[in-house]
Amino acid sequence: MKKEAALMAKEIERRQREFMEKQKMKHRLDGDKILTPLKNVPAPDPVYMLDGFQYLNSDEDEEPPERPIPAWSTSKARRQQLVVQARVAPRLVDRLFSVRAHSPDLREIFPDIERARLKRTSSAVWRTPPRLPPVRE
């Protein structure tokens, strides 16, 4: 019982120390935030999504209000982005996304494995015939 109580006391003390350290770190981070000037971030464009509820009452003749089309979705804006993307060299795109075909070096992935285990072999055992279960009569 005394050992359990001592272990519990140590665990409680350790957790209290961790909590205090976290509080200190949080306080330091909050202090840094106060000293950093806030940037003027423009308000994001509203997102308009149709939810399908406007079609539930088909007897209503009322049309849903027309919402403005976002500027980024116009064909002119898309065309501009496609022109910019077409000018980027394919080697830069391949370098950015690492799309070159390669097979992994298993020695890097499994550094402690034996060299013989890296060779591809058959998983079947062909030396003996298959053992069938006994047939009950």
UniProtKB/TrEMBL annotation:
Belongs to the INCENP family. Pfam families: INCENP_ARK-bind. GO terms for cellular component: chromosome passenger complex; kinetochore; meiotic spindle midzone; midbody; nucleus. Residues 57-76 are annotated as: Disordered. It is found in: Cytoplasm, Cytoskeleton, Spindle; Nucleus. One of its GO terms (biological process) is metaphase chromosome alignment. It comes from the Eukaryota. The keyword Acetylation does not apply. InterPro entries: Inner_centromere_prot_ARK-bd (IPR005635). This is Inner centromere protein ARK-binding domain-containing protein. It comes from Euphydryas editha. Residues 58-110 form the Inner centromere protein ARK-binding domain. Keywords: Chromosome partition, Cytoplasm, Cytoskeleton, Nucleus.
